[in-house]
Amino acid sequence: MGVLENIEPGELYDANYDPDLLRVRKETKIKLHEYNNTSPAEEDKRNQIIKELLGSCTDNFIIEPPFYCDYGSNIHIGENFYANHNLIILDGAKVHIGDNVFLAPNVGIYTAGHPIDVERRLQGLEYAMPVTIGDNVWIGGGVTVIPGVTIGKNTVIAAGSVVIRDIPEGVVAAGNPCKVIRKVTEKDSLTKNYKK
Ligand SMILES: CC(=O)SCCNC(=O)CCNC(=O)[C@H](O)C(C)(C)COP(=O)(O)OP(=O)(O)OC[C@H]1O[C@@H](n2cnc3c(N)ncnc32)[C@H](O)[C@@H]1OP(=O)(O)O
To answer: Is Acyltransferase one of the keywords (predicted)?
Structure first.
């Protein structure tokens, strides 16, 4: 059973002082420290650490170090997952990533947030809402995905976007806030030269 399993999406919990959460996050950071200090030659060791850490994954994934997350157990990745360097996932709530998903460098997937009002924020309260990323999604460099967002299958999120609302399947979306700029069409599979 994953940590925070009994907390409802959006429900406030004590993220800063709860001893169980602090313990699990520390255990996770110890494993990630080990992972992030492996050599590229230590593929088996890398795969073993990730398999122990994540909620679920297949045998077929690459996560380039450094990689950071809070708990690991809330993260589920599909077949043929590729994450470039410096992926950060704050997984207070579940993060479901489909098959064939590519993440560029410096992607942040944040399920967690704090109350807007100062008083409760300073009590260390936090909420988390799940993030879902569909099959065959490509997320560009430096993209931020905030709590509760779903990105539909076959979609491309342009570099630097901040995804604050759900994005449908089969589109290119860009910007802050991230919005659909066009559909992916048959023409895209005919492009031979990407030179502008
Ligand atoms: C797994 C890995 O490691 S991948 C390696 C890392 N690489 C990346 O992160 C590259 C990501 N690529 C991008 O962001 C590209 O801009 C793409 C793929 C979104 C381009 O998609 P295209 O549909 O070809 O977009 P195109 O260049 O024709 O631009 C279409 C419109 O979107 C806008 N646009 C394109 N990219 C962005 C962006 N990152 N942010 C904001 N707007 C953008 C353009 O300005 C243009 O607007 P206009 O019509 O008003 O002039």
So the answer is: yes
Q: What is the pLDDT of residues 63-81, one digit of tens each?
A: 999 999 999 999 999 999 9
Tell me the residue range of the domain where 164 lies: 2-187
> pTM (2 decimals)?
0.96
Report the distance separating Cα 95 and Cα 129, nearest Å: 9
User: What ipTM does the predicted assembly reach?
Assistant: 0.97
In 3D, which of 94, 111, 90, 96 has the Cα closest to residue 32? 90
Q: In this structure, what CATH number is given to the domain that contains residue 48? A: 2.160.10.10
**Ligand 1 centroid – CA 55 distance (Å):** 32
Choose which residue among 162, 172, 180, 185 to substitute to test ligand 1 binding: the one with the highest number of ligand atoms within 8 A of its C-beta: 172
